[in-house]
Specification:
This protein is mainly α. Helix content is 77%, strand content 1%.
């Protein structure tokens, strides 16, 4: 299983175009925020202490959430290519059992997602440093790493179910483009959730990746939030948290970190079971 996972990793990192398109949604996010979206969000908010620091933290929290999905999606492209070229038939004829092949694809996808998210985390800390803001503490880095692990596993499970229906590279590439385009909206990353219509807010609150985004925001925005809302009424702080998607309001119930963690864990379990069932029925 591990040898097969290593083979998948080598194929993924050797394909520069696949690597680029895995990060395309992240690149688009950075460009949008750097050109006009960041200023648009900043102008919509009143001036307060640590505003730049707070918005940078919000932005990079969203980028981390997107990266956990797009990179695992790109890694599963190896599985689709094996089906398309019928290389999978050669594997079936080998002594390796199908569960090991299945596990190899999953392990390589999780590894790719984890490594690429750590790279984004490193870049985030670098941006904080060169912007003159406080870098993340060791404890925050450990917390973010834990959320990355959970987010990548949940994303891998969702993507596994999706790619189980694809057998050609062209169909997979088309789906990847659509997912990369919509992901920012579905996760409430392009625009603060409080600025969106109610029905879109409901979709975002149900989408698992948006719960990964809230966890990243709660960690990255912890320090600047303390400075920004020092002495401010609790109601003002809570309104900001809800509008920016740091927490979600579910009919008067404000989501907690544990709620989002359990939501992602349930997502990973449910989608893994569904993907296994689909692949078994398809004689994967």
């Amino acid at each position: 299983m591990m040898a097969f996972a290593k083979r998948n990793l080598l194929l993924y990192f050797r394909d520069k175009s696949a690597l680029f398109f895995s990060l395309l949604a992240v690149i688009i996010l950075v460009v949008l925020y750097g050109t006009f979206l960041g200023n648009l969000i900043a102008d919509s908010l009143p001036d307060f202490p640590a505003k730049k620091w707070l918005l940078l933290s919000w932005i990079f929290a969203g980028i981390l959430a997107v990266t956990s999905v797009t990179t695992t999606l790109g890694a599963f492209g190896v599985m689709v290519e094996d089906r398309s070229t019928e290389s999978a038939l050669d594997f079936y004829a080998s002594p390796i059992n199908r569960s090991s092949l299945f596990g190899g694809y999953v392990i390589s996808s999780v590894f790719v997602g984890f490594i690429m998210c750590l790279l984004v985390l490193l870049i985030t800390n670098g941006v904080f440093f060169f912007s003159g803001e406080a870098m993340l503490t060791i404890f925050q880095l450990i917390q973010v790493t834990g959320v990355i692990t959970l987010s990548v596993i949940a994303s891998s499970a969702m993507i596994l179910l999706l790619v189980s229906f694809f057998k050609t590279v062209k169909a997979f590439a088309a789906a990847s483009t659509v997912i990369g385009t919509l992901l920012g909206f579905l996760a409430g990353i392009y625009i603060p959730i409080g600025s969106l219509p109610e029905y879109l807010q409901t979709i975002i609150k149900l989408f698992p990746t948006s719960h990964a985004a809230t966890l990243f925001r709660q960690i990255l925005m912890g320090q600047p939030m303390q400075e920004a809302f020092k002495g401010a009424p609790a109601a003002v702080r809570q309104e900001f948290l809800v509008n920016m998607g740091v927490v979600y309001d579910l009919n008067g119930f404000l989501t907690s970190p544990m709620f989002s963690i359990l939501y992602l864990a349930a997502t990973a379990i449910i989608f893994s079971i569904l993907a296994a069932a689909v692949m078994k029925s398809n004689k994967y």
